[in-house]
Amino acid sequence: MPLLLFLPLGLMLLLAMWLVLFPWSLWQRYRRGKATRRVWPWQVRLNLGLLWAAIAVFLLFSAALQIWWPHQLLQAALGLCAGMALGALGIATSRFEWRETGLFHTPNAWLVLLLTLLVAGRIVLGLFQILQQGVAWSRDQVLAGDLHAGLTGLAGLLLGYALASTWGLHWRLRRLRR
Hints:
By secondary structure, this protein is mainly alpha-helical.
């Protein structure tokens, strides 16, 4: 009997902790995202390879899920293209400095803020979609999948940004070695 009492209380405590820690984690993401950090060549190569693999899996799943959500693959491709353009802008507006210990990179603070707000918006919109779907199911209704495809486009934007910025760092490192 006490287990049935502690389970809902534990879930409510977890939800309350998440509500308190979510803004703090966003602040930490922004603060760490705009900090100057060293560019390690092996990390850039590893990130580049893993991002290509992640994008391949992302596009494969987007194509497969197009059965249930009609515009899934199109939104994923558009998001990737927009993210790559944003990543190219990010590399162009970032500050690079060569020190004795290597290359250091300081991302554009406005782009970091924009991406942090996009991540927060994606999480909030996902929670809204879950709530909306639950209400629709309680009324025996089915929702259109366009909102889900938009979330996929936003995920593509974040992946495209990561790919373009990592590719730009890789290109900058190769140019400095010559």
